[in-house]
Amino acid sequence: MKTLSVGKKGFLPSEVIEAEIDIDVKPIMNVLIILIPFLVSVAVYTNLAVIDMSLPPNVTTAAAQGAANEKPKVKITVLVAQSFCAITLGDALLDSIPRAGDDYPYDTLAARLLVRRAAADVKDEVIVAPRDGIHFKYVVRIMDACKKTGFDKVSLASATESPAGGR
Amino acid sequence: MNLHKKKFSAAVISDIIKPQMTSLIDILTLLLVFLIQSFNAEGTLITPSSDLELPLSSSKQPPVPSMMIEITHDAVIAEGKQLASNISFAASPDLLVSSVYAWLSRQKSADGGPKRIVIQCDREIEFNIVKRVMYTCSKAGFTDFSVLVIED
Fold this sequence. Notes:
The complex is a heterodimer of chains A (167) and B (152). In chain A, 35% of the residues lie in helices and 21% in strands.
C-alpha cells in the first residue's frame, strides 16, 4: 500500500497530481448560469441621446418688442439643399459645398463653419435651414457638425425653394 | 468473468466522458465581461417607438423624460394614439396640423405648461413633415425641442 506525504508531492506521478488538483467548477457554473440571463436582460445595446434645438426667434416680433433702432444680429445659416449645402450670413453666400455621392461632406462643412464662426458676430448660435425634401437623417448630421464646430444653440428653420438656387 | 469485464469497462467509460469544463468556463467568462460592459445601472428612461428608425448622431447628451411625439413613416403618434396621418397634412398649404395642435393644447393645459417636447422622428422622413409638426408644437406653446437619436 502506498502512502503519500506532502513532502513527497514533487515526486508523485503526473496522473496522481492531476487527480489531486481537480477543481469543482459546479458552483462557478451555477453562478454564471444565473448571472448571464440577468445581465442579458438588463444589457443596453443601443445608447440613446438627444440633440437640443429651437425654432429661430421671430425677427418681426423681436423688432416690434425691442428697441426700434437696434438691428437684429445676423446669424450664420446653413442651407441644406438636395445637391449642396451652403453657409450664408444674411443675404451673403459665404460657402457652397456640393454633396459628395450619397452624403454631405460633414467634415468639410465643419471646417468651413469653424472659419466663418471666427469672423461672425454671433458665435454661439447657428440656424440650420433644410429644404422640404431633405431626409431627417441628414439634418441631424448637419446639426452634429454645427455642434462640433462650437455652436451651442442650433435653431431649425425652413429654407424656401428657389429655382435659381439649385435643387 | 463476464461481470468483471463489464465493471471494468464502466470505469473506463466514466473516465472518458468526464466533461472538459475549461473551454466552457472561458466562453462564459468572456460573455460575462461583455455583458458587464453593456450593463446600465440607470436603466432606459425613454423607450423609442418600435415602428421607426431613429437617426444616428454623435451627440452624447442623455435624454430626459418629457412629453414625447413620434413621427413615423405614416403618421404622427403620441402616447400610442395616432394624431394625424402624414399624407393628410404633407401637401397642405397651412403649416399647422390641427389634430396635433388640439392634442398638444390639451396636454399643455393639463400639465400646467412644460415647454420641452422630445421628437422621435424616423430617419427617412422628409423635412417637410418635421417642420409642420415643429411649427404646430411651437404654436401650442412648446418652444424647446429635443430630437431623440441613437449614439453613433
